[in-house]
Amino acid sequence: MIPYPFQVHDLQTLKDAGYVGMLNMQTGSGKTATGVWSIRDSGATRTLVVCPAQTMVTAWGPTVENILGLEAREIGNTGTAKKKALWDWEWGVPGVYLVTPQLLARTNVSRWTGDMLICDESHQVMTPGIKAERALAGFTPREGERSLVRRFGGRLMLSGTLLRNRFETAWSYGRALWWGQNQRDQIGYDNHFVWKNDRMVGKTVYTNMRDVNGNPKTVMVFEGEKEPGRWISEAPTVITHLKRERCCEFHPEGFLPLDAPVVREEVIPLCTEQKRIIRELERTSMTWLEDNPLVVDLPITQKQRIRQAILGVPSITDDEEVYFADDCESPFIDRLLEILGTEIEDETCVVFTDSQRFAAVATERLNKAGVSAFEYSGRTRSVRDDNLKRFGHDFRVMVGVIAASGTGLDSLQAVCNNEIWLSRDLDETNSEQARGRLDRMGQRRQVVRYVFHDDLGISEGHYGDALAKRLRLNRSLKRA
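^ thats the sequence. predicted structure below, dont judge the formating
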């Protein structure tokens, strides 16, 4: 692999910064390769990469082997190879080692030390106070002094969705990368709560609880940056590359020389039984005062059940869990088959949904209809990567669960340019990551994206709220 001119410039920038910085690069811009070249150029002999499991096989393993000629070894507590890697890492054997955020969160890392620490998909780890963040950077000043980042000279944070859906994660980045800037009004200030009060917009919200005098209790809720763009402008080293916006001298119009995807949004009429079930789910979440319903915000689990019910006629268990029979009525699957049979006949396609249960049903129905399909999800982990290699040959359709297929897949664009979205994830960041699977470097055709909505407006309402929140956050990702 040979770096592009912009990557050569990025590597020099990182070298000048002592290989400490953030790579705020949209999906498909070569973050993994830049990270591995940084290992090579820095002379690091012991490197730890914190990354999701699915990126180990599809991204980090092949790239490390291609550029460094080394085997990237996964650390773990199960299996001989993983246990041996953990032993060698803790005893100082040189190499590139991979660890999941989940293992990092539950492992004693007090003996871990090395030359370079790279955190890929860092937005998954940077939520203040979660176990992985506390192990990595520390939540309190004392934890920070003993944290993992203090024992590595090179520290890189990589993400295509840097701040995810919460500006608050910027505090964790400051702690992980520039922990020396820990005074009041600096980006890595030790006290998380004071930092939030200084940097974020706060508002008082009434709760359903009451104090001893019977008055409603209030809490302070923080959302968004007070001065959008200020924090990232103060960050010493942030490398940004965008698909279709000016981001640097090399990309006056973005790094992807393709027109933006053609988006075809469709409203799918739900069947009568679906609407009845949705009304029942909504009714059971209401509080009644005599004959008048008090409309309250639905719990997130109930919202998820209702959103699943728009995909097909579900079966509801006594504890209100949602299941789908293989032969359930589904206007969404009916329209999916129409598109595959007429509008993109004989072409490959990726179908996205946030529901693993419905993904299994959709895959089964496609195969019964004579459309070769495979499911890419957590449930099919043992066979999904082998099936992925056959996509475009033995399989025409990949049905991907967003949480499983949103990161680490860098091969779909070579064989496919069609997407059909049955639903999107409650976490807009996961959906944004999935939208970058086909629309990325290596794609040679304009992406065609079908997006399904229901005629009750359930999905549209959620998507509108998520988009508005994402646009607010994007203002904080641009340097002032």
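Residues 317 and 347 are 38 Å apart (CA to CA).
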